[in-house]
Automatic annotation (TrEMBL), chains A, B:
Domain of life: Bacteria
Keyword Transcription regulation tagged: yes
A Pfam family of this chain: HxlR
Keywords: DNA-binding, Transcription, Transcription regulation
Protein name, as recorded: Transcriptional regulator
Domain HTH hxlR-type: from-to ranges: 9-112
Recorded GO MF terms: DNA binding
PROSITE patterns to which the protein is assigned, alphabetical: HTH_HXLR
Species: Putridiphycobacter roseus
Length: 114, 114
DNA sequence: TTAATCACTAACCTTTAGGTAACTACTATC
DNA sequence: GATAGTAGTTACCTAAAGGTTAGTGATTAA
């Protein structure tokens, strides 16, 4: 019997794996979209991302900060506020997010239109 | 106290949510990459995607088929073979996959180079 | 005085994703 | 006859993700 020799595609798979490790999950991209659209405060972000809970948002913000995609600033007046902002590094994701958005529209049309 | 008025970004968030529902998870994009690189058989795909188990591959292939991203063909000779292939619809993901790959490379450089 | 806002955290629970090992039925090779 | 490959499935289990509820301590608006 023939042995199957798989085509090697690790040059594509390894970087994609790296990217997915950082941005996969239900929420990270959505939070990033909200912040780049100008939402800075915890509750603003929470309101703008449908169905997210405070606990999950809190955790995801920490993850995003760790991966250098957002910044957390404490604004020290009365009362103390906290503001989140997108880092320059997160802007390297903009094309990816746009593709995701376009594809979502396309896929929905495909599924509904059949 | 000021009420926070979140910027509305649902026009971006909703399509991205749709896209993520279909392609998020650890494996789907990687399997799609393997198939578009020419791997057709179950075991070829399994060998080309690091660490995936037969059970997970089997389930993910079914999901991808349901979402019209791959096709499953039964080749009826001795012995019966099964071949998976990418659909035209899955090709609409190619730019997205490329972006993911590029970003993975960029992000790795950023993390290591700091 | 009461209630609400802000930015969370803790304790607890459920759901989903994913992993392990064994097994099937057929074919092919040593 | 033994072993290995093919394309999975089944049962069982763990880990990770995510959800629910409540609460904190400060401020402020009605």
């Amino acid at each position: 019997m023939k042995k199957s020799n798989p085509t090697d595609c690790s040059s594509a798979i390894i970087p994609v794996r790296d990217a997915l490790d950082v941005i996969s999950g239900k929420w990270k991209i959505l939070i990033l979209i909200s912040i780049t659209h100008g939402n800075k405060r915890f509750t603003e972000i929470q309101k703008s991302v449908p169905k997210i809970t405070a606990k999950v948002l809190s955790k995801e913000l920490k993850d995003l900060e760790e991966h250098l995609l957002i910044e957390r600033k404490i604004i020290d007046d009365y009362p103390v506020r906290i503001e989140y902002s997108a880092t320059p590094h997160s802007q390297t994701l903009s094309k990816l997010v746009k593709e995701l958005q376009d594809w979502g529209v396309k896929h929905r049309a495909k599924i509904i239109g059949k």
